[in-house]
Amino acid sequence: MRVRQVVTERGYRTISVLEHSPDAMNWAESYRSGVRQTGSPGLDFVIHGNGRFLAFERTTTAAAPLFVLSSTDGRSWTKLVDGWADWLDQENRLGGYLVDLLFANGEFHLLHLVFAGGEFRLLSSPTGTPWSSSRVGFNLGLSASLFATHHSLFAVGHSIRQSPWDLKLRALVRRADGTLELQVSGIVGQQIELQAASSLVAPNWQSVSTAPLTASPMVLSVPEGHNPPQRFYRALAR
């Protein structure tokens, strides 16, 4: 994938074009942004993770995304967030602009500078919508960046903030044979114990399986059969 800027109207307007190529030599257009003033950002954030591309389109430097686009093949794009109303209806409900973006530990992580108070927030999502919001802890300056290691996510601005990867568990799908697929994310190499309980009122957690986390995220399959009783699951690091 690449983004190409096309200048139109005697250099006063530009268009961002998303292009894909099987060999990095022959490129074909797959998405074209709206026309904007030369020098303003368009499709300036494009990233891949969890089997999909995400692209973020803006109209000005000081703006949350006008569109958040998703594609599994780089050819056909779907708008996950369509316009200001959709973006502001996300959990963050913030005005501001995008600073940095990366994919790590099974999720997209977006560093966002909020207009009110100049506070930096971290927005996270496994798919591109919805986004959960958390405070980074610094609010000085206009520039900052994200980087990730095997154990933690770091935000670097006027100070360095570290957040170790949490163990996360979410349900993916139930197969036709009744097998439940769960996805767990965490630090690769740690031992994971999956537990289940029939109630969250005074729960009696029982071990279901134990396995090393060989990748993040990793899929765990739990055979439950047809018409299984209600069960709650949790994952613990051992």
What does this structure look like?
By secondary structure, this protein is mostly beta strands. It is built from one helix and 21 strands. Strands 1, 2, 3 and 4 form a four-stranded antiparallel beta sheet that branches. The chain has a four-stranded antiparallel beta sheet with strand order 5-6-7-8. It has a four-stranded antiparallel beta sheet with strand order 9-10-11-12, with no helix packed on it. Strand 16 and strand 17 form a beta hairpin. The longest helix has 6 residues, at 83-88. The protein is globular, with a radius of gyration of 21 Å.
Strand fraction equals: over 45%
Q: Which blocks of ≥5 consecutive residues have pLDDT under 50?
A: none
Overall residue-averaged pLDDT value: 79
| Helical amount | under 10%
The total of beta strands comes to 21
SSE series? EEEEEEEEHEEEEEEEEEEEEE
Largest sheet: 4 strands, antiparallel
Total number of distinct structural domains: 2
Compact summary:
Helices cover 3% and strands 53% of the residues. The chain has one helix spanning 83-88, and strands spanning 2-8, 13-20, 28-32, 36-37, 43-49, 52-57, 67-71, 78-82, 96-104, 107-114, 120-125, 132-135, 145-148, 152-156, 160-164, 168-174, 179-185, 191-197, 206-212, 218-223, 232-237.
